[in-house]
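Think of the structure tokens as a kind of shorthand, similar to the way a musician reads notation: each symbol stands for something richer, in this case the local conformation of the backbone. In the example below we present two proteins back to back. Begin with the first one, reading the sequence and then the tokens, and try to describe in your own words what changes along the chain.
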Amino acid sequence: MKRREQSQTEQLRQALAEREAQLQEAQVRLAALEGSTSLQVGRALTAAAKRPGRSLVRLPRDLYRLWRHSGNTNHIQRRRTEPVRSFDADRQEARLLTGLSGGTADQLVAATVVGPAVQTAIDPYLRSVALRPHDAQIVMDAVDVDLLLVSASAAAPGSPWAHVGDPAVVDRTRALHWVMESAASRGIPTVLLDDAPAPPALRRLGFDRVHKGDAGVPLHVFNPVAAELALGPEAVYVRTGVDTPVPDVLLELGVGVVDVDSPDLADALRAATVAVIPENTPGEAGLRRRAWACGTRVVAHPAVPVPGGEDLTVSVPRLRALAPTQREIRTMLRQVFLDDATPVRLSTLLEGLEPTTTVPGVELPLSGRGVAVLADPDGEEQADRLAEDLLSSRLRPAEVVVPDTSARLPGLRRLRSEGVTVRTVRLGAPDTPAELTRDDNDAAPGGLTPRQWADLAERATVPWALMWTGPTGRNRLVDLACAAECSGADAVGTPRETAEETDPTVIGTGERGFFDRAAGAGQYVYVTDIDPELARTELLRRAWGPREWNRRGSRLLALGPDHGTGTDSGGEDPTHADASTGALG
């Protein structure tokens, strides 16, 4: 039997299993209905109505017998009933048996034929099943996937799929062609990332969607976290190929050189204050955004000098000596987070594709950013401030959770009218006096105890929760969610002052970690104690005091204030944020 016929047979077998599950469920329901007391009483009354003579005499006895046996449940028969198995349950079981590792159960499963950079970018957001030319057919038959993702960079020399689509490499092209046929026969959508030069035959394999560009900026790789610890030159030239010559003027200025495909690219960009990239080259836009995510200014180096443009001998030394301000770093990173990060790009690629949008229990990559706002407004005025704050935020929260006593406040009704899901919960009783004496409860934000924040978090349905105690401004929620995605931290908040900051003579008290810095030394710093703002919902549900989090293994990130923009400032386009200095290229 041909492999394509095997795929069709597997698809029919799955459909048959689903029909059998539905039939079994119908049979169980029919048996329960026929054995119900209500149906038997109805039959007795119907028989008495049809034959009034003899049946009316027997009716009281029959009803008495039904009443006596109505409380007896046949537990033995109930245990014998087979559990109803749905097609979705069989599908999840099959995935577990295939040994898919990594990710979470609610992530899309993608068969991938991609380059190493794309694989690194998508790993936190998709459960990847890497296909190789020698086992692509076997793996594709054995694993149930939601998506086939192919990138043109997979055809680069040195890759297992090198030169795929080239007539000279028939075996790899044939293997990928069979994978495409298998995906089409099973209704699996196929996507091509056209992120690098590749043989034209690769684009003619019949993909459902072709995207011109890469997989976006992976913020877990390119970010400004611990930038003050990065070592390297203050100016760096990003070389797009090993045979690309470095301009002589840059060599004279002592500019460092890093290859675009180097694993040290992120560290080199973090250490530098200015990055020089070749202009009008493939991937130039992606390089710009990766530099912005690391908090690095960009200068484009044209192959042909532009009349009237600033020479590199002037712009590079000037920008190298002038480090980016915190406002510029925050503005650049915020723009990348909203428009060009990997989960945003993946969600755009998958939008409207079947069956990725209809798989039960599976979330799209962007759902990992979902934020629930936990709040306890004490009156109409504070509820109005809550509504105004959330509706003006650049990152709209997925839901709002409040105590049931606040459900009818006008501000919350306004949130509902604007399409924001508002959930209510009954808060538990206040903690006992003995528990309230603990420092951990004193460290909880707002007027709620950790147990009450946990009650609110129990009602939330998304991964992140914002502990709202007052207006945060238009950009604060964006910056908090962005910092969490960049760092992988469990909670993000403002740095808490320690004894070492208030008293310089106190050293080595053990209150701070090795990577801790003073509050003003950095904007994205791992610490041992914060005033929490954004935290994982699961962490809040544990009802621990914030000062316990670090001691229980949680990673805490301190995010400083957004200097220079205020609470009501908008988000500037990074290409125009500092036009007077040419800082952002």
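Once you have a description of the first chain, move to the second and do the same.
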Amino acid sequence: MTPPPARRRRGGAPERSFPRRGSVRRAQMITTYGVGSLVAVDNESFIVSGIDSWNIGEAPTIHEHRLARVLGVKSFRLPPASDDTSRDGVRVRRFPLWHSCPNCNALQHVRGFNSPSGKNECGDCDEELVPSRFVMACAKGHIDDFPYWKWAHRSNRQEGESGFCGGEMRLRTSGKTASLRSVLISCTCGIPEVSMEGAFRRQALSGLKVFCSGRSPWLKDAPTEHCSETPRTLQRGSSVAWQPIVRTALSIPPWSDGLAARLEPHWEDLRELGMDPAAIGIYLKALTMKETYEFPVDRVMALLESENHEDGAPEQEQSRDDAYVALRKQEYERLREGRPESGSDHEEQFICEPPRSSSSLLVPYGVTGPMLVKRLREVRALKAFSRVDTPDTHADVHEAPLSSAPVDWLPAMEVQGEGVFLRLDEQRLDSWARSAAVAARVERIRNNHLRMLRERSRDARKVPDSPASPRMVLLHTLAHVLINEWSLDGGYPTASLRERLYTDDTMAGILICTATSDSAGSLGGLVAQGEPDRLEPALHSALERARWCSADPLCVESRGSGVGGINLAACHACVLLPETSCEHNNGLLDRALLVGTPEDPSIGFFHEALRL
């Protein structure tokens, strides 16, 4: 019997007839790998180019009229997709440009390695090059290669001033520790070998007279800008090297049905017709014959009237920040009013109904008007991004642009889901908030937050105000404890649930929802938790859990925790959530406002209900 032929062992990398490519999901182009971010692909590193270089010919259009008006664009586009044989899609550029060879330890610009065509290898060793682990960036979004030469020659003032020593640089790792002390840089000019220890200090680069280069390598042909910001050393994969600034909006009536989406390409023509029903009727009749879809005149007129009402907002709501508040107020009113499923179009994207059973069980808790949001659509648009400084809801951070040329669209994604909307009795809230002990705790949070905002503000005269108030902190903490509770009973992990807060002098509600880019976000597991017979025991259990923490008494007696001390009784053992679930980066929380403290239970809004 002839033995079978021996199997050939294949190499680590499969043979391919096309260059190696990396891929990311479309949703990640909004939240993780958007414009200006650094993407690692195998042993290479790239920066995502601006949207003016994207090929969006086949990219689907996303319509969300309310959000588009606030952001000053006509529409949104889903990031373009491409396959292995296509050259379309999102463009990237190689960055950083300084690489090292793991074999000969050479450290230089990638062009100095004489790599073979189409490969990123050392021309002498045939080893794959390693992109620099370190970059430098500033708070205005500029980013550049780390100045290795100046760092290595910092002790040699004369050569440092001349700018070049004629030697060749080397980078190696001693392997003794995992710290920066083991990353060693040398030069053949004879200087002592130095480590990267201390490179991440705030003034490390400014002490070497290294200033921001003003470069924006993600923008095509972008000129170098004069920048007075102090550059910081960052790791290439650091979270602060790229932070997205995302704006979101729910699709609510009258913009949530299929009619509004079909009219979006013709909206400019309809505006020019004014509010003349006859002229609009003629235009819609011609449009119906062209697209074989009936456009009712009364519904189109309702859309135009709604837009005119938004245009007539008072002067105090003309700023961009106030426009976002106006979006929330519109959503709050629609969530209160609801929209029944019966009689709605099958394309309707907003279905909100009251529970079938009585809500009297919730009266002792001060919860009123629960609504089951059975169908929900949310649009998330990437407006800009930041570096070094973490964007906070009310922090004054610089917004780096997505494009060097004017564009009338932004990248976005739409998600479908479900949720539960809850409100608290406003009279009871106001009575509770007047307590001196409650006001003192919230004032401590507010002062800490204002101090942090002043430190982050670029202009001391324009420090944004803190949103911290008794109503806001209470609702925010309540949302967190409910998300933790429902993650155990609703079938969704905590990271897939999100909060949406509606808090100011006229609003006192929270929406806890789940949303995904496919139909899996509407399985009904979360909506079922909104029925009063389920909601009451879940709320009671969540509040009972909030009465103690494994970190007590340190947690409940805290004078300030979290970044900037903007939390009080809140830690990872009790109420903190994954950052994707929270609108305020796990800040402005205090569970003592829910259940009180051992010394003073009365400061808890729900302390009376827990005694029953």
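Compare your description with these statements about the second chain. The two ends are 84 Å apart (CA to CA).
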